[in-house]
């Protein structure tokens, strides 16, 4: 057993190192660790596979698929009407409450992506004042219910596998409400510290895009001024690439030649004006215009640090990048040679073979489709929301668990046309399923081999004299650190077996430790890369890292303080 413990520890260390230092998918590391455990003989095949059918995990997958219909309802537009106002504190309060309540029942990534569009065009306040509070309040709202965030359901899956009583739907609500209330106060005060980027020169959204002059274009032989390329209002002709010649700055007297690549900076909404010029194309003749998608490059994406040409982007994804945005940074050079960064916003013209979300989740975080889905009609929106509310009510009342009602609801959505089979296929969270299923098996391995108990004893010694409360603080802090270094779901997977072992070794109720893992795994506020919603608003709000530190550090301190003060009072040892 001792040698097996050393082997398991080595496997876990390799897993953690891979998650922190590698750009490869966490699903690959978790799946590889589980596979190795089976091949070595530490886990029987049947037990390794049965974890992928864990009821909490299946419920999580069903919720994410059902949320497709919720996202297409008019709920978001109804709520966004209340975001207008001239007093920043009032707007932040309404925004925070709305996004938090939605995140309590819907995936918070979907909440942020759907609310962003209305906030980016607020009548009185810059998007930079609103988008980071939107992300933080969505994170806080996810802690109000069992289904508010994937982490809560994942922790519940671990609880079920350990043989302990399952967590209830509203077990998170009281502590979550206290955290949300304190968080909203921080957001109201802290939003004044955020930059007002609308005061910057060039208030238009600074997308960087190129257009190609065809050989038969009517622009050829005329100057920039004659072609009225100086009168595009929200677009500025920054430079021209003519073969090996680079023309910058572009003067009104510059002649346009066949094959020129015109490079513009400005608002994407003005792109339609370029299409009015005969022979001026955003896409080459051999590139078919498809639906437009706005996507953000994730921190762990293999696209980071490479150019579109190096990646053979069009061939790999059946999509053409027609514009790029990086905050207010002025980009230069051709799109194909541009080195991509995490947080870059790409506007993609996608083809019919564009990969599904499960294939892209490690590369991109979807912000919103620019012609991808049509909102449901008012009556159908009511029906979709009523069906979801009914499924929740049946679960809360103990009549029918979500794992039974959600499949029926999803079938009803498909039958009514609110969700298509193709959308389910493209949105199926394959990586999340692989991560969680593998993590449950690895958690079992840690507990059964005694590795979790050994680590737990070490933590107890580390906080010697502090008792169960000191151990609880250690679990929370460890989970929070893992969340900032890897992902929230991976952090919960790594610390849960240790937290459970600590509770067993101390002979106390394990529920406070389960809650410490859940709340610690969602405490990601001080980095744009620690949580998906933080990265989604990074470029859209033209933020810099110091903006996250300026608002995120007070939020993290208040969040942690409220959790650690009230958690043992609400869930006593």
UniProtKB/TrEMBL annotation:
The keyword Metal-binding does not apply. The chain crosses the membrane at residues 5-21, 27-45, 52-70, 100-119, 131-155, 167-189, 383-400, 430-447, 459-482, 513-531, 551-571. This is Anion permease. It is a multi-pass membrane protein. The keyword S-adenosyl-L-methionine does not apply. Coiled coil: none annotated. The lineage of its organism: Bacteria, Pseudomonadati, Pseudomonadota, Gammaproteobacteria, Chromatiales. It comes from the Bacteria. Keywords: Membrane, Repeat, Transmembrane, Transmembrane helix, Transport. Pfam families: CitMHS (PF03600), TrkA_C (PF02080). Residues 196-280, 281-348 form the RCK C-terminal domain. It is found in: Membrane.
């Amino acid at each position: 057993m001792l040698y097996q413990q050393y082997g398991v520890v080595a496997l876990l260390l390799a897993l953690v190192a891979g998650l922190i230092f590698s750009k490869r998918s966490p699903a690959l590391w978790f799946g590889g660790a589980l596979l190795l455990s089976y091949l070595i003989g530490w886990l029987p095949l049947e037990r390794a596979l049965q974890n992928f059918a864990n009821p909490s995990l299946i419920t999580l997958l069903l919720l994410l698929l059902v949320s497709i219909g919720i996202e297409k309802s008019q709920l978001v537009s109804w709520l966004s009407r209340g975001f207008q106002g001239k007093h920043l504190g009032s707007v932040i309060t309404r925004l925070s409450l709305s996004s938090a309540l939605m995140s309590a029942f819907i995936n918070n990534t979907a909440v942020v992506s759907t609310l962003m569009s209305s906030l980016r065009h607020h009548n009185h306040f810059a998007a930079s004042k609103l988008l980071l509070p939107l992300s933080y309040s969505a994170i806080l709202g996810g802690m109000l219910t069992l289904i508010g965030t994937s982490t809560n359901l994942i922790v519940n899956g671990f609880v079920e596998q350990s043989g302990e009583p399952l967590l209830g739907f509203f077990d998170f609500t009281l502590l979550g409400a206290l955290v949300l209330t304190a968080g909203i106060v921080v957001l109201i005060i802290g939003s004044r510290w955020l930059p007002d980027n609308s005061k910057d020169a060039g208030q238009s959204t600074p997308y960087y895009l190129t257009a190609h002059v065809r050989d038969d274009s009517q622009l050829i032989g005329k100057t920039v001024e004659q072609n009225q390329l100086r009168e595009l209002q929200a677009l500025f002709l920054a430079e021209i690439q003519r073969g090996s010649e680079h023309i910058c700055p572009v003067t009104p007297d510059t002649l346009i030649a066949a094959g020129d690549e015109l490079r513009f900076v400005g608002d994407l909404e003005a792109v339609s004006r370029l299409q009015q010029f005969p022979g001026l194309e955003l896409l080459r003749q051999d590139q078919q215009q498809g639906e437009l998608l706005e996507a953000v490059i994730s921190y762990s994406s293999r696209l980071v640090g490479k150019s579109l040409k190096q990646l053979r982007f069009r061939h790999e994804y059946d999509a053409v990048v027609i514009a790029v945005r990086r905050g207010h940074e002025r980009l230069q050079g051709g799109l194909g040679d541009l080195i991509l960064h995490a947080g870059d916003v790409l506007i993609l013209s996608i083809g019919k073979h564009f990969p599904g979300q499960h294939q892209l989740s490690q590369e991109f975080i979807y912000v919103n489709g620019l012609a991808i889905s049509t909102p449901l009609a008012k009556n159908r929106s009511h029906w979709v929301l009523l069906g979801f509310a009914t499924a929740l009510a049946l679960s809360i009342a103990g009549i029918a668990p979500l794992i039974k009602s959600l499949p029926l609801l999803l079938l009803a959505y498909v039958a009514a046309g609110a969700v298509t089979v193709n959308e389910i296929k493209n949105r199926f969270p394959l990586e999340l399923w692989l991560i969680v299923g593998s993590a449950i098996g690895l958690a079992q391995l840690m507990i059964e081999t005694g590795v979790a108990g050994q680590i737990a004893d070490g933590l107890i010694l580390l906080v010697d004299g502090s008792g169960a409360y000191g151990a609880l603080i250690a679990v929370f802090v460890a989970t929070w650190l893992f969340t900032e270094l890897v992902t929230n779901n991976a952090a919960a997977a790594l610390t849960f077996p240790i937290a459970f072992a600590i509770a067993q070794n101390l002979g106390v109720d394990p529920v406070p430790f389960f809650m410490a893992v859940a709340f610690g795994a969602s405490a990601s506020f001080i980095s744009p890369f620690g949580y998906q919603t933080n990265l989604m608003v990074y470029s859209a709000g033209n933020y810099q890292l110091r903006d996250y530190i300026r608002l995120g550090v007070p939020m993290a301190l208040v969040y942690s303080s409220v959790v650690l003060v009230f958690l043992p009072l609400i869930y006593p040892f």
